[in-house]
Amino acid sequence: MKAITTIGIDLAKNSFSVYGVDAKGKPVLKRSLTRSGVTRFFANLPGCLVGMEACASSEYWARTIESLGHTVRRIHPRYVKAYLVGAKNDANDAAAICEAVKRPNMRFVPHKSPEQMDIQATHRIRQGFVRSRTALVNQARGLLGEYGLVIPQGTRHIRKHLPAIIADEHNGLSSLMRRNLASLYESLCFLDRQIAEQEITLKTIAKENESCKRLMRIPGVGFLTATILLSVAGVASNFTNGREFAAFLGLVPRQNSTGGKTKLLGISKRGDKYVRTLMVHGARAVLSSLLAGRTPEQRQNKWLAELAARRGAKRACVGLANKTARIAWSLLAHGTEYTIAV
Q1: Residue 30 and residue 120 in one domain
Q2: What DSSP string runs through 246-293?
Q3: How far is the C-alpha of 8 from the C-alpha of 94, rounded, in Å?
Q4: Which residue has the higher pLDDT, 297 or 118?
Q5: What is the Cα–Cα distance from 212 to 331, expressed in whole angstroms?
């Protein structure tokens, strides 16, 4: 068998399909592997380029295969689809991945270190608790509305009014309904404690990590944004410049250009929605502080105020989020400090 130079592997739980080609692009390998056989197969194979989709368990397999002397590149599934020939099955998916990973203009998903994965997992767990708490609050408000008891929107209003409603014996609630509401309130308190614990963990990481300390000097970047930026950036040097990192987060305009006519639309919204939301919320806080007169006059603030007056507050927030992403990349890639231009 000729030497294999490039392999595409379709990941799964137990059955893995691999497709390999030689230096001339001729297929020389088509087979399936069991989960226990993947490590043994790559351990007995000379070093080559391995492509896989950036899906569940890809971080683990990328680290494992790279430790055996191979070069691993992860690709977003959206970019693999264009190279799929024939019906969709595991073998054809592996062939498409093998073809895609060889393309010179292909974009790859950066790897994460175990520490970065731990930070991202903490954010994901906190995000799940927040979603559960929001659903619980909406459920409580909806149930109370059926009894003519209306509570304003917001978690703080539920915390404030729900105990009093449960204790009030003259509001028409049955004993069963009071027990149900008491159960909801206990769940709300539990979720509050879990969210607080995750935030304490993230604050500790932000205080101990030098990169996070430098990121938090940027206006609009707190401990949540700093830690998740550290996580999603992977190795910052994987991105050519700050604009490429902003595009990775989906904060650049989406194009619909042809015939030399450039047409820019709204932001692309690619990448991680959670990170993008934190970036825009941070920019909104900066703009609110500026419009309220609580921020001293500086060059960036003057630019932001003029942009908000010219294009509106929402577009200004997205523009500032884009600029913040570029600054964050520069700090992570070059190890520099954030300085304010007066």
Answers
A1: no
A2: HHHTT-SEEE--BTTB--EEEE---S-HHHHHHHHHHHHHHHHHHHTT
A3: 5
A4: 118
A5: 10
Q: Are residues 215 and 203 in the same domain?
A: no
Are 94 and 9 in contact, with CB atoms under 8 Å apart?
Answer: yes
| C-alpha distances out from residue 104 to 17, 81, 107, Å | 24, 17, 9
For the question of whether the overall pTM of this predicted structure is more than 0.90, the answer is no
10 in helix, strand or coil? Answer: strand
- The helix (run of H) or strand (run of E) holding residue 50 is strand 49-53
92 lies in some domain: yes
Q: Can you give the length of the chain in residues?
A: 342
* Residue 73 backbone phi and psi in degrees, to 5: -125, 130
Does 342 fall in a domain?
A: no
- Quote the tokens at residue 201: 């963990």
The confidence score (pLDDT) of residue 183 equals 96
C-alpha 174 chain-centroid distance: 44
Q: Domain ends where: 208, 231, 264?
A: 208
**CA–CA gap between residue 46 and residue 48 (Å, rounded):** 6
* Gap between the Cα atoms of 56 and 292, Å rounded: 45
- Among 76, 101, 126, give the residue marking a domain's end: 101
- Closest to 147 measured CA to CA, from 126, 176, 123: 176
Do 218 and 296 sit in the same domain of this protein?
yes
Q: What is the pLDDT of residue 264?
A: 83
Residue 341 resides in a domain: no
Q: What is the CA radius of gyration of the chain?
A: 25
* 175 lies in the same domain as 246: no
Q: Does residue 307 sit in the same domain as residue 233? A: yes
Q: How confident is the model at residue 338 (pLDDT cuts 50, 70, 90)?
A: confident
Q: How far apart are CA 285 and CA 291, in angstroms?
A: 10
Token pair 């305009």: residue: 253
Which tokens go with 322?
């884009």
Q: Tokens representing 159?
A: 């915390």
**How many structural domains is the chain composed of?**
3
